[in-house]
């Protein structure tokens, strides 16, 4: 019986040693995996940080371009308004000349007025002396 107990204790001891060895190997592999995960996370953080900086610079540049374009549009706006006024004046002068020619008064060029809706069926004829 003593021999049986000695064999049992020896086999239990061997099993415990084998179990500790396997747990140790599993923990080492787990630590290796955790180290790789930490490296990967660090790389991701660096990449995200780099992208964030690039995005900030891009947004800053876009804001500068927008402000520049807005300023230039404000500078050009009076010029466009003046061009529109000149166009309206030319239109009014043309209409005055058209009305004067339709009424048979080629020398009567009065102050430009609003456009007329009156048209002549045969078209417009201007007589020059």
Automatic annotation (TrEMBL):
Residues 100-129 are annotated as: Disordered. InterPro entries: UPF0478. Residues 108-119 have a biased composition (Polar residues). It comes from the Bacteria. It holds the Pfam family DUF948. This is DUF948 domain-containing protein.
